[in-house]
Amino acid sequence: GYEQVWTKMKGLVDSGLAVPAKILQANKGGLMVQVDALVSFLPVSQLSPENYPRVPGGDKERILEHLKALIGKTLQVKVIDVDQKDEKLIVSEKAIWEDDQKAVLESYKVGDTVDGEVSALTSFGAFIKFGEGLEGLVHISEIVWQRIEHPRDVLKVGQKVKAQIIDLNKSKIYLSIKRLVQDPWKAVKDLYKVGDIVKGEVHKVEPFGLMVKLDDEIHGLAHISELSDKTIHDSRELESMFEVGKEYDFEIVNIEPAEHRLGLRAAGLKKKKKEETNEEVKEEVKVETKTEEVVEIPVVEKKKAKEKTIEVVEEPKEEVVEEKVEVPTEETEA
Known about the structure:
alpha+beta; CATH 2.40.50.140; 3 domains
């Protein structure tokens, strides 16, 4: 009988058939469930969105409380890994959900606009529920055209939103909110010119300079080398010179609409000679490139950008440490 049960489990891996699993115990890594005559493990990462513990900050005790509330319930799961020698049996509820999602997804295509509701916020984006139990990800760079630190800056859980489907990858859905509104950078040269003296609000102080808000949609960068005649050594020195939330006068030194970049220098500051700023400019390019990796638009048609989007979103929505199965970590708000 014992051998027959393990043989049956191996057959379920190949067939992909769903089986009932009764939840017996919970630990910080997942659930111990009974499948047929065997006790198996259901990792947190393999729970469906409905049962996934969306806990702000990845608090392990709150995750455990959420999992314990599932004890006694029976879930439909797929057997995804069998190791009779080590008596290891891994099952997945998410695999069932993904199959259901694939069937519903057949009625959608890239470019469609959907009405949904924000279901969760993470450091890398927002999850939107729409349609018949579907859920997609809006990467942080696809929420609004300007740079934001966290999705919570402009969205909240429960908020109704419109989004456009920009990619369908098996059961994964990628959405964009910002593509439904016109890119403000297309008209930036009608509003601003190189050489203009403008008022800008210091939005954030970075080690490489100031992020400056010219208006609600256009933000610029004042590099550290463009803020004083004297060398500024670190962000603490910058913070003593410029206050976040306060307006200052800046001169526009360059505008790159296609790259969503606008360079600034402190008004009245003389342009430095090329040889004096050569190394600083190299550093600017290096740092800006690093920054742009966060805010660059993941256009579906561009293979490289698409890979970046997918690479990020593969992470789960909050920090979870499993006792038997290694799972990546992330913070999620719900």
